[in-house]
Design goal:
- The protein is mostly helical.
- The chain folds into 2 domains: 165 residues, Cytochrome c-like domain (Cytochrome Bc1 Complex, Chain D, domain 2); 128 residues, Cytochrome c-like domain (Cytochrome Bc1 Complex, Chain D, domain 2).
- It contains 19 helices and 2 strands.
- The chain has a two-stranded antiparallel ribbon.
- α3 crosses α10 and α6 crosses α10.
- The longest helix is centred in the first third of the chain and has 22 residues.
- Bound molecules: heme C (HEC) (2 copies).
Length: 407
């Protein structure tokens, strides 16, 4: 018996020492403050999606109809442009161009729309307050789909597939005679002829067409809301560290970049905060162009008087749910040259950058922060930033950890 007891003791001792080694907690390299900042950027913190102005978000039938509309080229003046012409799935729902190109050449860069539904405002200048209202703009834009709301309503309400889906979702349809009588190419803004044709319709006809237009916007938005933000190596790093595991996803350079990113000296976190790396707000970083593109300052009244905003008759929201519209910043002077802080998720895959696509790569973006005359002259919402070459390389390496993890 004695040797056996001794052996057992030895085994227990060996096990105790090695088990203790295995269970030794991984030391988190960050201070509690740094760690809480880092965790706040992780995708885990993405809140539930809410849009009180669109009761069809999450509705499977609306998502189906919206996805078909998103990819349908018939929704354009020349039958060749769909939402997906510019928001291409294989390019992370962007187009890789400097500025958008369809029936005309636009002045703004096409953003990736993965995760866009979590935004508060839509477009670079935030001129739309909901995703469904946003979806209506490119359809009638002469440079994009150039497709009047009357044409859209006629197409959807007469195409057998769409008609059936529309009716299942939104109930009774106008009569076939009524739909046939609607004129083609009538819209409230556009050429004199287009506006005249729109005005010649009765109030009731205009209301029916606008209701159809809004319902289709809500369906498209239901689909766009399913486009989730991407999971990244950065998220995996945070998840492992949180679980007390040895997190090996980021190398030393990338970690140095993360440290710079959260360092108040660089100010990045003042604007690129939260799980989408945006504070959802409007700022000048010295990229506005006087007389050409003044950003949010130019569109403040447009949002307030938009027929399809949160307070309008086509919205599903009670008035009290439209606080962001009611209390939005209206001081035009302070909004000159401001744009919505873009998400940095997947940024490495969605060049070029800025509202006008003026920066071909991320290194040029950093160079802007370092050398912009506007920033140096104090005409922007941040103080001048200085970074050594090594620091720039580290920050760039960190930004690339925010790219989609390849499946
Ligand atoms: C001709 C190319 C083009 C087409 C077609 C197009 N878009 Fe866009 N999209 C853009 C551009 C450019 C912007 C940014 C415009 C701006 O901010 O002024 C944009 C912005 C957006 C945004 C807001 C992104 C953000 O970060 O705020 C959403 C959402 C969107 N588009 C969805 C759609 C949907 C839905 C359709 C179809 C109904 C569509 N787009 C058709 C080019 C296009
Ligand atoms: C004062 C707010 C603010 C600060 C501080 C700030 N940014 Fe930005 N950032 C913006 C805005 C606004 C834009 C869009 C400007 C435009 O489109 O003209 C932007 C654009 C970018 C873009 C391009 C994204 C795209 O899709 O076009 C990158 C990358 C970026 N910032 C990284 C950083 C980094 C890194 C830091 C810290 C060194 C930083 N930003 C600091 C507000 C800010």
């Amino acid at each position: 018996m004695r040797p056996a007891v001794a052996l057992t003791c030895i085994l227990i001792l060996v096990c105790l020492s090695s088990c203790a080694k295995q269970d030794k907690p991984i030391t988190n390299p960050w201070t509690p403050h740094e760690w809480s900042l880092i965790q706040s950027l992780s995708l885990d913190n993405l809140p539930a999606l809410v849009d009180p102005s669109n009761r069809y978000v999450g509705n499977p039938q609306a998502i189906q109809l919206g996805s078909e509309l998103f990819f349908d080229k018939r929704l354009s003046a020349n039958g060749r442009v769909s939402c997906a012409s510019c928001h291409q799935p294989e390019k992370f729902f962007s187009d890789g161009l400097t500025t958008a190109q369809a029936l005309g050449t636009g002045t703004r860069n096409t953003p990736s729309i993965l995760g866009v539904a979590w935004n508060q405002w839509f477009f670079w200048d935030g001129r739309k307050d909901s995703l469904w209202s946003q979806a209506l703009a490119p359809i009638e834009d002469p440079k994009e789909h150039n497709f009047a709301r009357t044409d859209l309503a006629k197409l959807v309400l007469t195409d057998p597939n769409y008609q059936q889906q529309y009716q299942a979702l939104f109930g009774s349809l106008p009569s076939a005679n009524e739909i046939t009588a609607w004129p083609l190419d009538a819209r409230p803004s556009g050429s004199i002829e287009q506006i005249k044709t729109w005005k010649a319709l009765s109030d009731q006809e205009r209301n029916t067409i606008d209701t159809t237009f809004a319902n289709l916007g809500k369906s498209i938005a239901a689909y766009v809301s399913t486009l989730q933000p991407v999971e990244t190596r950065f998220d995996q790093y945070v998840a492992d560290l949180k679980a007390g595991k040895a997190a090996k996803q980021l190398n030393a350079t990338e970690l140095a970049g993360l440290r710079l990113f959260i360092d108040p000296k660089q100010q990045c976190l003042n604007c690129h905060s939260g799980p989408l790396f945006t504070n959802q707000s409007f700022h000048s970083i010295g990229t506005g162009e006087m007389g050409k593109d003044t950003g949010r300052a130019a569109i403040i009244d447009q949002i307030r008087f938009d027929r399809f905003n949160c307070l309008g008759k086509f919205s599903d929201a009670p008035k009290e749910a439209c606080t962001k519209l009611q209390y939005m910043q209206r001081n035009r002077h302070q909004l000159i040259g401001t744009y919505k802080t873009p998400s940095l998720r997947n940024g490495g895959n969605t060049a070029p950058y800025f509202h006008n696509g003026s920066k071909p790569n991320l290194a040029d973006v950093l160079e802007h922060y370092i050398s912009s005359k506007e920033i140096q002259a104090g005409r922007a919402d941040l103080k001048p930033i200085s970074l050594t070459n090594d620091e720039q390389a580290a920050l760039l390496a960190f930004l690339q950890t925010l790219n989609a993890v390849k499946p």
